[in-house]
Amino acid sequence: MLDTKHLRTLTALRDGGTLVEAARRLHLTQSALSHQLKDLEERLGISLFLRKTKPLQFTRAGLEILQLADKILPQLQHTERNLKKLAGGDAGRLHMAIECHSCFDWLMPAINSFRDHWPEVEIDLSTSFNFEPIPALIRGDIDLVVTSDPHPHGDIHYQPLFRYQSMLAVANQHPLANRQAIEPADLTNETLIHYPVDRKRLDIFERFLTPQGIEPQATRETELTLMMVQLVASGRGVACLPNWALQPYLDASLVSCRPLGKDGVWPTLYAAVRNEQKDSAFIQDFFDQALQTCFKHLPGIVPVAGEG
């Protein structure tokens, strides 16, 4: 009656603390998770956790299943990974390029975990600030690109990771901090601080300003997210950053943020690989570990429709 899906569901519920957070970690909608839990309890004929408790409390039956999950899931994951190595070989190369400046915080833990499990895979990491990564991927110079700007190509597979909201960071005392949402025309008198990449690779230009024919009064470049936030906080300009990258600075009350337009701007982050490599065991395992890391650590991200 129990299967590994149920074990993972209850583990996510315990670790997340709420149905909302558990659903996010499992890449499910809250309604889908609630239905799954109800179905499991009906099959078992017993309640597994107490509704409307904060923090979430499990029944004795729920705790029994969690104890089982803590024993079985690590062993199962270890065995599955070893079987993949035996089936597909455990050596290879994974040279990565990152278009997303803010991705280092979550990508490094994923790489460290991956390295522990695949020591024979040669790993290298670089930014793509000074070269075009997708042509380099097609040529075979690199093996994986983290990007929010997919360019369809017959040789490339884009693996969706998650959706995130691009937000405008402003100083706490800035007049735009009192707005419900930002409109393109609001930036005509602003200095826009951004990363030193072509504006075609920046969400705020491609998805917000350029379609409306709007230009900011001035622009300023910096490679460091922290520097960008400090410049915003001191009133030197405004900046567009992912919601999850801004969250630590919002928690510290360094800056405020507002959505771009009433519906917001919601890009999707992808991991791009060559089609010939997408089914290799270590590439698939890297996808899995990257997703687990993202949904465990990044606030505000959501699953891609049809994924998970």
From TrEMBL:
Pfam families: HTH_1, LysR_substrate. Keywords: Activator, Amino-acid biosynthesis, Cytoplasm, DNA-binding, Methionine biosynthesis, Repressor, Transcription, Transcription regulation. It is found in: Cytoplasm. Residues 2-59 form the HTH lysR-type domain. It comes from the Bacteria. Belongs to the LysR transcriptional regulatory family. This is HTH-type transcriptional regulator MetR. The lineage of its organism: Bacteria, Pseudomonadati, Pseudomonadota, Gammaproteobacteria, Oceanospirillales.
